[in-house]
Amino acid sequence: MFPAFEVVPAVDMQDGQVVQLVGGERDTGRSYGDPVEAARRWVEAGAETLHVVDLDGAFEGERVNADAIDAVLSAVDVDVQLGGGIRTAAGARDLLERGVDRVILGTAAVENPQIVAEVSADHPEGVLVSLDAKGGEVVVEGWTEGTGLDPAAAAGRYADLGAAGILFTDVDVEGRMKGVRTEPVRRVVDAVDVPVVASGGVATVEDVRALREAGAAAVVVGSALYEGELTLAEAQRAARE
Description:
Layout: E1 6-14, E2 17-22, E3 25-31, H1 35-44, E4 49-54, H2 55-60, H3 66-75, E5 79-83, H4 89-97, E6 102-105, H5 107-111, H6 114-122, E7 127-134, E8 137-140, E9 145-146, H7 151-160, E10 165-170, H8 182-191, E11 196-199, H9 205-213, E12 218-221, H10 223-226, H11 232-240
Parallel strand pairs: 1-4, 1-12, 4-5, 5-6, 6-7, 7-10, 10-11, 11-12
Antiparallel strand pairs: 1-2, 2-3, 7-8, 8-9
Helix pairs in contact: 1-3, 4-6, 7-8, 9-11
């Protein structure tokens, strides 16, 4: 999935615009304009993968920004991992067959773990299970509902079901640009033999290095890139050092 540690720009969408939420809270985000323009900008800057999320879909339980997402898919020629509002195996397969490289299953995987096995049977590299942690437990429905699940233990179960990788988001630091916490990431990495993509809190090149050293296969970066606190080139250099 990620042959070398990779920096993945986020293109999160709300109401058809790029938005970065703070702490996973709805209506805390700042808008950064057109998703297609953002996607093209990151690809031109050297991104090899884009992390695309339908935030409205994550909250509503069904895909809302489908047209904007289709426009992004048509505009770029890099790997795209897509999440938000994907709740059925049929919906996940449809996206994979239309050119999405990986679907991100969060709430659907918690509510029905077998969906991971169902989709992975036809697309063995196609499922990234999202484990969003808040207060040490996995949260779902757009980070609004606790599950009581331990992220590391859950990661192991989904890897056994065929997940190609785990997306671990530290919601407590998401969007705050105040640094990462490596211990939760390391716990998930140690629990599985599949790649772990880390997300949440990245603000500096030191954060990128810390997550690489914690064993993550890639890091998703959003707010720091959009706010200009960190450039993609700087983050990529840190990833290679």
